Amino acid sequence: MSPPGVPDIVVGRLPMYLRELTKMAEEGKEITSSQELGKRLGISSTQIRKDLSQFGEFGKQGTGYNINFLIIQLQIILKVEDVWDVVLVGAGDLGHAIANYGGFSDRGFHLSLIFDNDPKKIGHQVGSYIVKDVSSLVKDIRARNIRVAMLAVPTVDAQTVTDRLIEAGIHAILCYSQTSIRVPEGVKVEYIDPVLHLQHMTYYLP
């Protein structure tokens, strides 16, 4: 269990640390330092040490961090030491790309179900999945006790689908739709909108 009161911005950096440490382990490295990790990520070593100290002491001054040990600890903190089943709603172009993405299973997630409301898509294969009718969404999600969802539907449908996901017991939603969705307290939402990130970057352009 993570300690209470940890700033969300700190939690948001932990997956970046985990990803880079995993790369280091794949390179055959066994020990690293906050300086090395910071250089690879473009984050100050002081910030990394401060972030990690929110959850305990994982290294010793002068000897650095054992990479495999720190990977395991971050997996536990982020609750990805086991694999989470995930449901995807939306089988359009973006849904196809997500379904064919191969980077979920080795990082704590397994895409289990895909839904859509388009009769032309229902029953057809996307990647290695058969698209199911969104009308069975609540029943099927409850049957598998899935708690994580990805939302890749048109903006106009996003809130309606979100309401059904909440009814089904979903507690975490990754939203690709270009809108803000309303969820009850206790449900976590993250947004992926490339235009927002592009607009953020153009602010800094000369």
Kindly name the structural category. alpha/beta
What is the count of helical runs? 8
Low-confidence parts: none
Shape: elongated
Highest CATH level, the class of the largest domain: Alpha Beta
Number of strands: 11
Chain-averaged pLDDT: 92
Q: Nearest-angstrom radius of gyration? A: 19 Å
Number of domains: 2
How is the CATH topology of the largest domain named?
Rossmann fold
Helix content: 40-55%
Distance between the termini: 45 Å
- Major sheet summary line: 6 strands, parallel
CATH-level-4 superfamily name of the largest domain = NAD(P)-binding Rossmann-like Domain
Features:
single chain; 206 residues; alpha/beta; Arc Repressor Mutant, subunit A; Rossmann fold; 2 domains; six-stranded parallel sheet
Tell me about this structure.
By secondary structure, this protein is α/β, with parallel strands linked by helices. The chain has 2 domains: 8-77, Winged helix-like DNA-binding domain superfamily/Winged helix DNA-binding domain (Arc Repressor Mutant, subunit A); 84-196, Rossmann fold, CATH 3.40.50.720. It is built from 8 helices and 11 strands. The strands form 3 sheets. The chain has a 6-stranded parallel β-sheet with strand order 8-5-4-9-10-11, sandwiched between helices. It has a 3-stranded antiparallel β-sheet with strand order 1-3-2. It has a two-stranded antiparallel sheet with strand order 6-7. α7 links the parallel β9 and β10. α1 packs antiparallel against α4 (67-77), α2 (34-41) crosses α3 (45-53) and α6 (137-144) packs across α7.
